[in-house]
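Summary for the lay section of the report: proteins are chains of building blocks that fold into shapes. Here we show the chain for Transcriptional regulator, MarR family and then a coded description of the shape we predicted for it.
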Amino acid sequence: MRIEEVVKQQNFKNPQQKAWINLVYTYNQLTDQVNQAFKKFDITSQQYNVLRILRGRKGEPALCGEVKEVMLAKNPDVTRLSDRLIKKGLIERSVNEQNRREVQLTITKEGLELLDEIDPELDKQNQFLKNLSDSEAEQLSNLMDKLRS
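The coded shape description reads as follows.
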């Protein structure tokens, strides 16, 4: 459905305003869908983000600062997020023996298993991307990169 129909507005100040409204609307729609998927697993999108990052480390610990640096949604309190994941048994925290000020995070077996359960659900949520060809998806990514630069 075209953005004009969704927001019931035919005229925009300029194409950039139309694109901005379209981006915000689409972001909110996608976020709502993904958050519904996460509710089934009793985690938040930020918690999933931490688990996803730690899975990518392939068993190697990550410093809290490193996790924060690559999070999709920048969350200022990685400690609080990690506390909740530790309580759920999904990650572990340790202190770097060489530098005791550095706190390291590692995903647990349970965390990896949860991600294995979540992945098919997210694949279902991402079916909307099938509306784009590979070249269109690449073009969309390139345009978003351009917006951020």
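Put simply, here is one thing we learned. The domain at 3-125 is CATH 1.10.10.10 (Arc Repressor Mutant, subunit A).
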